Amino acid sequence: MQNKKLNVGGQAVIEGVMIRGLRNYVVAVRKGKKIIAKKGVIGKKNRILKLPFIRGFVNLAEMLIIGIKSLMWSAEQAAPKDERIGKNELAFTMLITVGAVIVFFIALPYFLTNLVGFAEEKKPVLFNIIDGIIRILIFLIYIITISFMKDVRILFQYHGAEHKAIHCYEKGKKLDVATVKKFTTLHPRCGTSFLLIVFIVSIIVFSLLPSIILHFNPNFMKLNVWIRKGILFPVRIILIPFIAGISYEVLKISDRHQKNLLFKLISAPGLALQKITTKEPNAKQIEVAIFSLKKLLKTENK
Q1: Which of 11, 118, 127, 146 has the smallest count of CB within 10 Å of its CB?
Q2: pTM of the entire predicted model
Q3: Which among 248, 236, 58 is positioned nearest to 131, based on CA atoms?
Q4: How many Cβ atoms are within 10 Å of 223's Cβ, its own excluded?
């Protein structure tokens, strides 16, 4: 195996695993007794897009696009030809999904916190702690609920297989089922951990928001309460790329310094949540993850 390790990541898909590198990604799925795969190319990025705090949101957007494409392809392989989802149906589904995320993870916690009676403009820290706790609780309830579904459990097993294979590669061990199986299903660089960091960073950033607005507009508090909220809520949406950028840097640093107590504590909640979002995979699922990773490494090294 090569001396210099590539920075690889991935995600679980339907009956398979997607592994991405710097320039390419590979989706592998089990179809009957066979494992089939599809390769994709990641476009080159401008130097500015690679800068710290900018690269976080860029990588997130890129991963979402690659993830959707990978899920689409895996769904096509799993479904009969006459039941495959068309591009228009998929676009509508994604639009509904994005809308649901905004409603349940941004708008609903904000609305419920306002019902408690705390004014965001007057007690921003307390308001955003409650808002953040509600957001995390909704997320936990959602994850725990779907984890009981059979199809989701299989997806979580492939998620575990992906993590095990990446751990094995990062430790420089032989990529075979017996060796990969020994590794943990938990990984500090996982998207699950990233989401929890986003929730925590958003509490801090949103707590500072009213003070920043007041600094630039001392008359802000004199505005009608609904006008104030009409300004604050859209600004929250606008700040998502900024929050994602900070969260990405925290995730990368904590992954590199897992021996440091502070960064271990930062990673701990995400790793704990991964005990739900990853399950112990079987040998056949591990084979798919290994197949995807090996094909990616071969493609990247050409």
Answers
A1: 146
A2: 0.87
A3: 236
A4: 14
